[in-house]
Amino acid sequence: MRTVLSAITMILLLMAGARAQGRSPLRPCVSSERALRAVAHEYWAAHNRRDVAAQARILDDELLFISESGMVLSKAQVLTPFRAPEGTVTFGSAEQPADVRARFAGNTAILSFTKRWSFTHKPSGASFGATSRMTEVFVCRGGVWKVLLFQETILPNPNRQVFMAAIAHFDEYVGDYRFGANGEGGAIKVMRRGDKLYESWGNDRPVEILPGKFDTFFTPGFPVLERFVRDTSGRVVAILYTIGDSEVEAKRIR
Fold first, then answer.
1. Tens-digit pLDDT profile for residues 201-235
2. Secondary structure letter of residue 220 according to DSSP
3. How far apart are CA 191 and CA 174, in angstroms?
4. Hey, is 167 helix, strand or coil?
5. Most buried among 145, 160, 183, 220, by the most CB within 10 A?
6. H helices within the chain, ranges in order?
7. DSSP secondary structure letter of residue 25
8. Beta strand 196-201 with 207-211: parallel, antiparallel or unpaired?
9. Could you give the angle at the alpha carbon of 16 between the alpha carbons of 10 and 21, nearest 5°?
10. Dist. CA 212–CA 156, nearest whole Å
11. For residue 25, how many C-alpha atoms fall within 13 Å in the half-sphere facing its CB?
12. Residue 159 burial (CB < 10 Å; 0-12/13-18/19+)?
């Protein structure tokens, strides 16, 4: 009896071992920044050449894609525009990312980087460009890194060109302003120091504002665009601040 039980036990152990050998172990992904950068580069190259198959291979089926405008898209929604004929707008991006950061945690990895991109309206030739901070979360599937999450944030004017001709008009902007259409809000002071223009709100320290075209000004890294408003005679009478859905006016008081 003992012999029979021992034989049965041995057979069961051999069968279990055979099944274990038959199952292929989970293949790990290479946990290196270089490996992630290679996948990211492959994806953006496929994006620029409108290669649907290559993008589909890299994007995970459970993809959560958050665009620069805050739209939340699935994998199918991301790929849909690339299945249709190219329209009048073309997109392009820098070949290599900048300011790259990588993190690893088991079968999950994060790659965050900045990338310069642009789009062009082909009929008119008008082209627009920006720089974004892009973050991709990868999951290891069968030894291959897949993009599980993508999130993009546009960086405020890091490379916007200064309109130097505006310096000749800096004195026209100097003065005291107050928030509100009737000038009853907080104080704003615009002052000139040589060839630079500064602005302070209340008791805050003065911050340099840089000129764009047509009476517009900006501060690098700050998403507010301000425009000095003129009356029919050409005199500056107000400032209009724009960010997102908001427009805030400040009236010139002297």
1. 999 999 999 999 999 999 988 889 999 999 999 99
2. T
3. 5
4. helix
5. 145
6. 2-22, 33-48, 52-58, 75-83
7. P
8. antiparallel
9. 125
10. 14
11. 4
12. exposed
Name beta bridge partners: 72. 66
pTM: 0.73
CB neighbour class for 107 (10 Å; exposed up to 12, middle 13-18, buried from 19): middle
d(CA 83, CA 101): 32
Q: Which two tokens stand for residue 88?
A: 């009048």
Residue 31 has φ and ψ, to the nearest 5°, of: -90, 80
* Residue for token pair 């789009």: 119
DSSP state for residue 141 in the 8-state scheme:
E
65's enclosing H/E stretch is strand 59-66
The structural domains of the chain, ordered by start, are: 33-154 (3.10.450.50), 164-252 (2.40.128.50)
Tokens 């000139």 -> residue: 192
In this structure, the number of other CB atoms found within 10 A of the CB of residue 36 comes to 24
Report which secondary-structure segment, H or E, holds 72: strand 72-73
- Tokens standing for residue 156: 């405020």
The answer to whether residues 117 and 132 touch, using CB atoms and an 8 Å cutoff, is yes
Q: C-alpha distances in angstroms, 77 versus 64, 100, 197? A: 10, 27, 46
* Residue 102 bridge partners (DSSP): 111
Number of H helices, E strands in the chain: 4, 15
How far apart (Å, rounded) are the C-alpha atoms in residues 221 and 158?
A: 6
Q: Which two tokens stand for residue 13?
A: 């152990």
Q: Which residues are CB-neighbours of 28 under 8 A, at least 6 positions away?
A: 107, 140, 143
Q: What is the pLDDT of residues 18-73, one digit of tens each?
A: 444 444 457 899 999 999 999 999 999 999 999 999 999 999 999 999 999 899 99
For 156, other C-beta atoms within 10 Å of its C-beta total 17
